[in-house]
Write a structure and sequence with these properties.
The protein is α/β, with parallel strands linked by helices and 233 residues long. The protein has 2 domains: 124 residues, Response regulator (Rossmann fold, 3-Layer(aba) Sandwich), CATH 3.40.50.2300; 98 residues, LytTr DNA-binding domain (OB fold (Dihydrolipoamide Acetyltransferase, E2P), Beta Barrel). Helices cover 30% and strands 33% of the residues. It is built from 7 helices and 15 strands. A 5-stranded parallel β-sheet has the order 2-1-3-4-5. The chain has a 5-stranded antiparallel β-sheet with strand order 10-9-8-12-11. Helix 2 packs parallel to helix 3. It holds the Pfam family LytTR. Keywords: DNA-binding, Phosphoprotein. This is DNA-binding response regulator, LytR/AlgR family.
Length: 233
């Protein structure tokens, strides 16, 4: 935990900023890069700046926290800081790693940050080698090695991810962001908030979907440009 990671705060309540700033100052592994009181300003910042961790409120004017995560094609790791617990299940579909209920106490904050660093370190290691031929996935509590050549596409499924191969479907205990980070970027691409596809398995491309096998997979609006640029190569 010696590596310092950049974080930002997005919350419309000044009191929430005060608490989080003090907690971050007590956490030498975190550097506060910026802070915002609305989702619009945060969105503009995140489009041009790399951030490792986002402390994000849900209930904000103009753009809610969940709206912000939906709009960003590849949101940073996110810890939600909110007074509303009813959005917890939906939030995990967008790669949220923890859910802090206000008022936030320092020990709970530290636990959340420790979880971030644990997950961040694992994904960084997985991303180092772009020439890997297999990935390790957890299925029913058991680690299984799966050849990349066998993967057709991945689909978000609540707190799990479905990995579709030629012969079977795996229900993996992971998030879509974690699966994306474990796959080499020159072979797999996220084309929708809920889908990652094997580029060499695409059989047909339409303006709104791709076809793999018998499945039409939607292309999200925020991912169209990246896919279009790849196809021009």
């Amino acid at each position: 935990m010696n590596t310092v990671r950049k974080c930002i705060i997005v919350d419309d309540e000044p009191a929430a900023h005060y608490v989080l700033i003090n907690y971050i100052k007590k956490s030498p592994q975190l550097e506060l890069a910026s802070q915002f009181f609305n989702g619009v300003d945060a969105l503009n910042y995140l489009r041009d700046n790399k951030v490792d961790l986002l402390f994000l409120d849900i209930d904000m004017p103009e753009i809610t926290g969940l709206d912000l995560l939906k709009i960003l094609p590849a949101p940073p790791k996110t810890i939600l800081t909110t007074a509303y617990s009813e959005f917890a299940l939906e939030s995990y579909e967008y790669g949220v790693i923890d859910y802090l209920l206000k008022p936030i106490y320092f020990p709970r904050f530290l636990k959340s940050v420790d979880r971030f660093f644990s997950m961040y370190g694992q994904e960084t290691l997985q991303n180092i080698d772009e020439n890997i031929s297999v990935i390790s996935i957890k299925v029913d509590g058991i680690m299984v090695e799966l050849a990349l050549d066998d993967i057709f596409y991945a689909q978000s499924f609540g707190n799990y991810v479905k990995l579709f191969t030629k012969n079977r479907t795996y229900l993996v205990s992971s998030t879509t962001n974690e699966i994306q980070c474990s796959l080499p970027s020159h072979r797999f691409m996220r084309i929708h908030k809920s889908y990652i596809v094997a580029l060499d398995k695409i059989q047909e491309i339409d303006k709104d979907f791709v076809v793999i096998g018998q499945q039409k997979i939607p292309i999200g609006i925020t991912y169209k440009r990246e896919l279009s640029e790849y196809l021009k190569r």
